[in-house]
Amino acid sequence: MRIYNPQYSIETAGWSIEPSEDCLTLQPGDVEAALQISCYTKRNGEVTEKDLLLPWKSTFANVSCDKINVNCGLYSGICAEFVREGVFWRVWSLRKNNANLFITYNCDPENREHHRDVIDWMMNGIKEGRA
């Protein structure tokens, strides 16, 4: 099922959906994990490379890891993977026009590969949303 936000849309892969004021959370039914999507809209101009780091710095300020450039559907940006305080994280900061998607996936480190293919499929299918 595809869900829509004014700035993006994403396939849910049948995961449970928990919207909140701050983010959208998708959770698989087989292991404890969560994919969370927050969307920020820049008021003036397009999201820049520097803007991509702002949500990252506020959430993972003390994490040292390699960030790689990625394309996810119609969005582009940076991604990284790391373990922090016993939790495995995959983190993306993506942009398209004035939208910045900050997406995190977390799970137990021993399950880090369990959903990799489905998450890659979901991320590669991100499209523009609708109002």
Summarize the structure.
The protein is an alpha+beta fold and 131 residues long. The chain has helices at residues 49-59, 116-124, and strands at 2-4, 9-11, 16-19, 24-27, 33-41, 68-72, 75-84, 87-96, 99-107. A 7-stranded antiparallel sheet has the order 3-4-5-9-8-7-6. A two-stranded antiparallel ribbon has the order 1-2.
Architecture overview:
This protein has 131 residues and is α+β, with helices and mostly antiparallel strands. The protein has a domain of 74 residues: Protein Transport Mog1p, Chain A, CATH 3.40.1000.10. The chain contains 2 helices and 9 strands; from the N terminus they run βββββαββββα. The strands form 2 sheets. Strands 3-4-5-9-8-7-6 form a 7-stranded antiparallel sheet. A two-stranded antiparallel sheet has the order 1-2. It starts with a strand and ends in a 7-residue tail after the last helix.
Distance between the termini: 18 Å
Cα radius of gyration in angstroms: 14 Å
Beta strand %: 35-45%
Largest sheet: 7 strands, antiparallel
